[in-house]
């Protein structure tokens, strides 16, 4: 497995897509911090000058409360929230591309003809993408923290950090990465099944967005249906990511909606989906003839 | 017991796709130091056979062994002894030629990495080693493919149409390279449509059609007994009557200047004697030995009529 993993990581480093995705996530995180800061400050200034446009207005107090989520202590909530939302989408695209292009380019048969076991071939890819997801999340978190430091100073926000902030931030990065795993496994499974990266991207993204919307609607229409939604992906991913939210009585903490599944339930469900999708991909790939492309 | 010289052996190899039998009880052997040509028309089962040898296609029945190790059950150890181009060379387009070999060498391990530069030199790609693979011509892709097969210096090298896309000079280089590989004690299985190329470099040929081995042996053995004799006579009808029933003559065809016999070239003397006995004197008797191409086209025709038997 190790030689395959080293080769996989070598190829991943040489691709432009992982670097582009990393830059995109960092840029988006930084941009959203400054965008929210800029627009909120502009709204506060408009309220103070009496030049605010018509329509329902937030009070200055509400706007200042909104700014609090940009402070360093709230990085795991706001910053990692951005990384978590964007990360799943870009990782679906990257994963499907990495798995599917082996079929498109015909390189699959070259690697397998070297004697690489099929399970190990897929296994090396899964591990490489999971490691990349960890790096992506870590860099996203660093970008978010750096942005929060700068914005916090500009807005004169409280710069203090809670106890064990570093450790909890590392936990949050690991947890966010964990929530990506079922989406990575789903995209890989579809790419392997369809022997196509495009199919993996298209179906993976449709599944990601559609599942999130359907589960949200289910809970919104009738909270009694929440137990069904609690066996989907999106609510469990949100549940795990919410572990690092600020306590509800802390200024800047987000309001809780419908109760989310508990962390253990969420972890088990996400792990079960990951195992299911990986198992299906391995099962499909094991006996398949690889005669061309 | 597998001979130490045998690098590849298949026994009763069968592949069925539903009702279609793509490969039908195929037995073949490749020994160290020999180049074996695998010939057959499109759809004959060559790629499926190579796929089964490399563990890419699961056999319906039978076994394939590389260096005495079963490819399907001891995959990693078996295929450590082989290097192959399957169908067309396939590499990562975003990597340079050198990086592509590095990616494969990382999987191969051992001394594969140290062999990259010498191999690039050997196939004439040193100058373009850092160019992206997607910018390579077909000939350069083929050269890189050949370099990749030799990364671990394997006892068995499988080349599927290695000269495809190469200019005549490139084709000659490949022929020389394949012969060098044989001299270096590699066993080479070469699938090719270029029968002239096969005739020049292969020690033995295996001809398959519709999944079955229909002829095998050295080039001389496969082409033995195949040929034509042109006879110039003034009365072809009488001459044909005199020759009809003569042993070794399978067909007699009247032409503008006389007769064309389908027969081993050595039968010319018998024909001459028979004509003289009938009072017919030929002004010319010209024997033509069939090339591998002639034999190939003949035996891969519907039903494989006239095929030299596979031993």
List the helices and strands and how they pair.
The complex is a heterodimer of chains A (293) and B (311).
Chain A: H1 2-14, H2 16-49, H3 60-67, H4 75-105, H5 107-113, H6 118-154, H7 165-194, H8 197-221, H9 226-229, H10 234-241, H11 263-286
Helix pairs in contact in A: 1-6, 2-3, 2-4, 2-6, 4-6, 4-7, 4-8, 6-7, 7-8, 7-10, 7-11, 10-11
Chain B: E1 6-17, E2 20-31, E3 35-39, H1 46-53, E4 61-66, E5 69-70, H2 75-79, E6 82-85, H3 97-108, H4 116-122, H5 138-149, E7 156-160, H6 168-183, E8 187-191, H7 195-201, E9 204-209, E10 212-217, H8 219-223, E11 227-232, H9 236-243, E12 249-254, E13 258-263, H10 268-277, E14 284-289, H11 292-299
Parallel strand pairs in B: 3-8, 3-9, 6-7, 7-8
Antiparallel strand pairs in B: 1-2, 1-4, 4-5, 9-10, 11-13, 11-14, 12-13
Computed Rg of chain A? 21 Å
Which quaternary structure do these chains form? heterodimer
Unreliable segments of chain A (pLDDT under 50, ≥5 consecutive)? none
Q: Which secondary-structure class do the elements of chain A indicate? A: mainly alpha
Query: What is the CA-CA span between the terminal residues of chain B?
Result: 20 Å
Number of helices of chain B: 11
The percentage of residues in β strands of chain B lies in: 25-35%
DSSP strand count of chain A = 0
The interface involving the most residues is between: A-B, 26 and 34 residues
Q: How much strand content do the residues of chain A show?
A: under 5%
- Spans where pLDDT lies below 50 across 5 or more residues of chain B: 302-311
Shape of chain A: globular
Q: What proportion of the residues of chain A is helical, as a percent range? A: over 70%
Strand/helix succession of chain B: EEEHEEHEHHHEHEHEEHEHEEHEH
| Shape summary of chain B | elongated
Give a quick account of the main beta sheet of chain B: strands, pairing sense, barrel closure. 6 strands, mixed
Intertermini distance of chain A: 23 Å
Instruction: State the order of secondary-structure elements of chain A, H for helix, E for strand.
Output: HHHHHHHHHHH
Specify the helix fraction band of chain B. Answer: 25-40%
